[in-house]
Amino acid sequence: MTGRKPRRFIAFLWHRRIGLAAFILVIILAITGIMLNHTEELKLDESYIESPLLLGWYGLEPEGEAISYDIGEHVITVLDHLVFFNAHPVTRSEQVFHGAVKAEQLIVLAFDTELVLLTHDGELVERMPTGHSFTDIQRIGIKYKRPVIETSDPLYYMADEHILDWDVITNEDIAWAEKTTLDQTKMTALLESFRGRGLTRERVVLDLHSGRFFGEYGTYVMDAAAVALLWLSCSGLWVWWSRRMKQKKKRHYQKHHRRTGTSI
Amino acid sequence: MRHFAAILLILLLSAHALAGGVYQEPDAFIAEVFADKPPKAAVIWPDTELKAQIKDILGHDYKGLRIRYWKQDKRTAWVLDEIGKDKPITTGFVINNGRIELVRVLIFRESRGWEIRHAFFTDQFDKASLNSDSQLDRTIDNISGATLSVRAVTKLARVALLLDQAAQVEKES
User: Fold this and answer.
1) Is the pTM here over 0.90, yes or no?
2) Nearest CA of chain B to the CA of A151: how many Å?
3) Into which CATH architecture does domain A67-196 fall?
4) What is the distance between the alpha carbons of residues B108 and B88, in angstroms, rounded to a whole number?
5) Is the minimum CB–CB distance between A132 and chain B shorter than 8 Å?
6) Which chain A residue is nearest to residue B87, measuring alpha carbons?
7) Which residue, of A79, A238, A250, B139, has the greatest Cβ tally within 10 A?
């Protein structure tokens, strides 16, 4: 016989069981909660996840295929509307990509109704909407080191050296940009770069805190952890209170019944 | 009652569909402000100082190393982009003698805040200029529910005035 009262013992037993069960989850809740309170200081919203394991867990695979154009020493690729200079993301365009050429001063990328200009080092110079006079680009080529555009009319426009004005020309001696396929190394680098931009550390911490990270039922598990924390607070209070009462009774007994107790 | 709800839903959806989008192509804007005879486009390559001033206004670097503009005498036209909440708002500006002559929202891609396209908002910029702190010489009233869009266009107005100053100096030199 332990001498414990059953109700008090059950509360203590469940306090221990639930405490052990919720141990890991409560630690996750507490740590992620602290991190989220200091998102800005920790720069969680500015840094991106690079771990392939985590990115794979989130299913961050590109939906479309990579469209690449070789421009000499470098490659321009568009993958899921993201424009890459080699493996470095430069900008984004929602339009269909029609090719890229290296002109005398700049690299020119052609989209449906927009041209994107980059320096030879891949820095964004300008995004040029082509407007009324010059729409529906089909492909891009080069002549005399100047970019040439073919529209759906079909008409052929050649730019000046600063790529500000365009003149209509005939379709002669134009070297049209041709697609290329990235080798395995370049493709791996590109995918790493693509995925790296897609998932912030803040997102992962937020999902860990809410439980979404663990899948469909993860939020319910974290809810259970929160309820467990609530239970632990109440049962802890109950255990403390009942022990205090017990000690109080014990002291009272020792004070008033010691003589009787010793005589036995 | 059911019909009323259906009509209300259609009206709401159509209003939403009409809200954002391309209000005017940038080329058409330039053609209009120069009476269909636009001058040749010029470009400005902001130097370090100008870049810093732009960054100070926008809170980030302006995308791109060069900015195109159109100039006739003391009048310049600019088509600039700035993100409101998530997507860029393309806005056309005409600056005449260092003061804003016209502001027009050309392309609005966000789902909220399209009210800034209306004249009751853009007219507030009429004749606005920059003071010595690169601030507008007047207060631009906010539109509730379009705070970020209002902020974006106001910032762009300051950038356009700043660029105009640089373009005038560049041409003179």
Assistant:
1) no
2) 17
3) 7 Propeller (2.130)
4) 7
5) yes
6) A92
7) A79
